[in-house]
Specification:
The complex is a heterodimer of chains A (312) and B (278).
Chain A lengths: L7 H10 L5 H11 L6 H14 E4 L7 H12 L13 E5 L3 H10 L7 E5 L9 H13 L4 E5 L2 H6 L2 H15 L4 E5 L2 H4 L2 H14 L3 E3 L11 H18 L4 E3 L7 H14 L12 E3 L1 H15 L12
Parallel strand pairs in A: 1-2, 1-8, 2-3, 3-4, 4-5, 5-6, 6-7
Chain B lengths: L27 E2 L5 E3 L6 H20 L2 H17 L1 H12 L3 H21 L3 H5 L1 E2 L6 E9 L2 E4 L6 H14 L3 E5 L6 H11 L8 E4 L3 H10 L5 E3 L5 H10 L6 E3 L6 H5 L2 E9 L3
Helix pairs in contact in B: 2-4, 3-4, 4-6, 8-9
Classes of the chains: A alpha/beta (312), B alpha/beta (278).
Amino acid sequence: MLLVDGTESSLRAMLQALPPVDEVGAHARAAMLGTRSIKTTSKSWAIDTAISMIDLTTLEGSDTPGKVRALCNKAVRPDSTDATVPHVGAICVYNDMVAVARKHLDAIGGADIPVAAVSTAFPSGRASREVKIRDTQDALDAGATEIDMVIDRGAFLAGDIMKVFTEIVYIKELCGDRAHLKVIFETGELVTLDNVRKASFLAMAAGADFIKTSTGKISPAATPPVVLVMLEAVRDFYAQTGVKIGVKPAGGIRNTKDAIKQLVLVNETAGAQWLNPQLFRIGASALLNDLLMQRMKLRDGHYAGPNYVTLD
Amino acid sequence: MRIDVKKTYKLYIGGAFPRSESGRSYEINDAKGKFLANPALASRKDLRDAVVAARSALTGWTSATAFNRGQILYRVAEVLEGRKAQFIDEIVALEGSTRSAATKQVDEAIDRWVWYSGWCDKIASIYGSTNPVSGPYYNFTTPEPLGVVGVFAPQKQSLLGLVDALGAVLAGGNTAVVVASEKFPLPAISLSEVLATSDLPGGVVNILTGKTVELLPWMASHMDIDGMDISGVSANLEKEVRVAGVENLKRIHAFKDATPQRILSFTENKTVWHPIGI
């Protein structure tokens, strides 16, 4: 069942029908779920699951082909001393590095690891529609199989939801069967949880395969209450339409504890069926090293240090 | 009548005073066996957090000039001097020593701290060297900081023993994770308050109170601690600590007094070959 028929009135009707978010309740619920104690075998499972969900990301002006190749090596074999560590969910880079990443992954046995490109004038989203389409086309031509597009927050906040909606529709059409579409809200700029819920439904109705919290360039980013609201949105959307949309928190998830809190949120909100890399990803870079150090600690029985994981 | 304002004794990690993440505390008694205080009972996770804090403070502390480090340590001595009475009271209560013995210990600790602060910018010039080599090079060797050092100070003379150990680690340019004396932790806790108010960057010194047997083996096996001063360790725990520290080739030392050698034990020599005339 489709929630909207593409007209502005149907879109507004859908968004107006959404119940408001209980802001205090969302914070309390997220904080409460954060106190769950995950130990021993559960922790070990959670660490490996989290590793397999990471979109290993480098989005710096200083990215070089060498750095991207090093990141690909790490994606395929996160811990060079331990082959039992699963590979990560995807590599996430800027457009011009997609070809480098794809070629290198294929060469080192990482053909099953997708390359995601950030698109549509990432991170601000301030460009004309033609530029955004061309930007996405570039990434697709270079071999990206996941597109992380940003929404136009200015238009969203100004109430021009049709502009946001049609942009997503256009990019989705461009992706077609070739690529998964992740839609980034930059929740730090949307200000309220009500806006997060609205943006979630808007993006899902427009055809997003994943909804993603942030670019990683703005703080606050993937805070637990925001992720909670987005997980509730995909759960409700699934109940209404039978379509499962993925969620990707990104930005600010730096250590194992934060990552495990996210997994608890997923399990308790959307349900265990969301606990796989097809429906939940974590956008991160520094997180992987902390997960590896915690994994070593569980394996060796003593605390590891940053000297025993790669610098990146 | 006024209600007593009782103090909550906490840990000192990364420049802040948190409770133990475990929420635990334990009782300590004074020398006469009467209840004195409830210091925090640190867990191994507090130790892990302290190591992370010490590691992230290392770059700033080692890259500060030796002269600047010396000034900061001298400032610590100044603040210590102003809080002498508190330390004397704590030592009298805990160790059961006479007031004059406690005063002597505190005076000596402050003087020792001043002595260490002076060593900061002299250790390299006195113990570094220029080496004659066969070739067109200036060749010189300087002691450089080792890294993060765990400190378990002698248990007797709770303040002086701690100052002897900690001063050496800091004067060498290292950052420290201290496990305070289990029975006499109050001077260490008060020292953390002195350190927090004397220009020392947060995380350079981290102080944990708790059970020695619970913390020391984890400290010894921690791969991100580069050295340990275990001057206060008992004979039966020493072997376990030394064995656990082998994995990452930890520099583990015990000392009886404060000497320049104690500072040098937590440094690594760096030798530079500088070409001449090219």
